[in-house]
Amino acid sequence: MNSGDSSAMYRRCEDLVVCDLDGGSALLDLNTSTYFKLNGTASFIWEKLGDQPMDADMLAEELIKVYDVEKAVCLPDIQYVLNELATANLITDQP
């Protein structure tokens, strides 16, 4: 897995239940019975990965359409979130 690699294409893993929270999301991994809480930005990334597989650059382009942030500023944060989601087995590289 290329966790955090800006060229890797990511998609959501299956067997997850998602619930919207005020300012974020909660995820339940049905395989491990583990809960995860995502903040607003991580939830935005999670939602975008449901539309289609995306890499960090594509996610940054989507993020700057909504938030007042420059790509150079948000890209490292996106890569961090992708790495955390991949480490938790919530997303995977798209083959």
From TrEMBL:
<dbReference type="Pfam" id="PF05402">
    <property type="entry name" value="PqqD"/>
</dbReference>
<dbReference type="InterPro" id="IPR041881">
    <property type="entry name" value="PqqD_sf"/>
</dbReference>
<protein>
    <submittedName>
        <fullName>PqqD family protein</fullName>
    </submittedName>
</protein>
<dbReference type="InterPro" id="IPR008792">
    <property type="entry name" value="PQQD"/>
</dbReference>
